[in-house]
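[[Per-residue structure]]
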Amino acid sequence: MTTTYRPPRDSLWFVRTRRYTLFVLRELTSVFVAWSIVFALMFADAVRGGSLPEFAALAARPWMIVINVLALVATVFHTITFLNLAPKAMVVRLDGWRVPAWMIQGGNHSAWVAISLLIAYFILRSP
């Protein structure tokens, strides 16, 4: 049995290339995306269970605000990088013509902005 030499793995291998750094950052932002989902579920439970004042007190704590601002920034980064990867994950053809990547990305980003504005309208409008 022969053994092959394997050089030791550098734990910061991804820092040497911008593409790898962005890839690892995008993967790490998934933790913040998961936190955003947990926070939204906690909010829904507080509304349903009648404990909204306690949830509001928790959400108003400075450390919670910092976590949620970081989660917002990370989620936006995750969303943008995810939408930019869409043309690589799917090929769209219309009557034999391949739709360019910028059109797919533009459509994805436009839909994201439109849906976000629609949600913001319903949340922020006066009763």
The CA atoms of residues 6 and 13 lie 15 Å apart.
